[in-house]
């Protein structure tokens, strides 16, 4: 174990014990509801139940009692939640719609089937439907239902569920008028290498380049290649959905939503105002999730990101940015701006945890420029750009003593300069670094464990000069939950 690490200040963690996937993400009457895979009794995976937290600004979260609890026969695996406005399920009353959670019952028999629970008090108390499960294929790997209301061109609509046959690398689609009876629509996949699992799908529409007349569809699927290599990550396909079948755009396969190591099971909030798509993911990786050196909590959620689709090379691509709620929050201290200066060598830059750091780097002869976070002589994370190859690299060594043999990472991507400059945004917290580059086309999310000391940062330019400018916004909220 490394020395105790501070608790994240911007990222949701539970007071104690284990969490994994975000579940049941739902916006309702000004409140963002986050449910999540939770072990209420320990800091390792087990006793899977849905925990619950709420926020009004996507930054400060209040943890509530367990929402849907496991029993000896039934673990409550991942799923989603919707507001049943028209009371199609009959769980609500006229004028008092129920929230319906659709989750996977992982049964003691090994079978996985989809079940319902409902809340008539805005998400705080839940009743399991007595006729569960509502959808059973006799499978042992049928899970993670994400349900949304689909509106056809003629204005009529129905519920659509995307779920996975995890071992077969398939997303399966169903429809329903009542949330209780489901009818098979179609399959997507298998599409990629036969190893590992497909988990936690999502399906949603987004305008391409902000043009509502030109919508695209995004199918999210998380990939766990079997706890080897670089481990688990969230991926996506773009394509079209006609209410029955998802047809991927030709020529592009699964792409990563995030290029770091710790962004898994990413799914979006249902019902977000203005049709926005806000994604949350689990800030961990199945390779080492159960051995991360934190106590008494284990696991955190990513910062929420607002997604957009932009014209890309061949097919549209996803971009990510901080939602306005976070960007404009009064939880940030006034920005400290470091005016542009010419740099050759290294120069300290204040490291504030938590903070948003905006860096602008313009190569003026340097062969490498970047930013480094260190504790004493020990590197926590390094961002480095080589102008000659346009390669941006995020490196994260394994702390000592190590977390896991696959923890150390060096991820490289091609990122073009814009107007001769590289613009990077870093979101820094006590146990994570989230990097946004190339106008949100590229993000990296990595957990880090600097230990009890948070350390310091430098900017650097090697082999020549660079023009550097920075803005640091410190988060006011220092108090952990
Ligand atoms: C993904 C996952 C889901 C499952 C849940 C169980 O991390 O394996 O497929 O529903 O976690 O906790």
UniProtKB/TrEMBL annotation:
Q: Which InterPro entries match?
A: ConA-like_dom_sf (IPR013320), Glyco_hydro_32 (IPR001362), Glyco_hydro_32_C (IPR013189), Glyco_hydro_32_N (IPR013148), Glyco_hydro_beta-prop_sf (IPR023296)
The cellular component terms of Gene Ontology attached to this UniProt record, alphabetical and capped at eight, are: cytoplasm
Database matches in SUPFAM superfamilies = Arabinanase/levansucrase/invertase, Concanavalin A-like lectins/glucanases
Question: Recorded GO terms, molecular function?
Answer: sucrose alpha-glucosidase activity
Q: Output the superkingdom of the source species.
A: Bacteria
Q: Does the keyword Translocase apply?
A: no
Biological process GO annotation list?
A: sucrose catabolic process
Annotated keywords = Glycosidase, Hydrolase
| Coiled-coil region(s) | none
Q: What Gene3D superfamilies does the record tag this protein with?
A: Exo-inulinase, domain 1 (2.60.120.560), Glycosyl hydrolase domain, family 43 (2.115.10.20)
**Record-stated family:** Belongs to the glycosyl hydrolase 32 family.
Q: What is this protein called?
A: Glycoside hydrolase family 32 protein
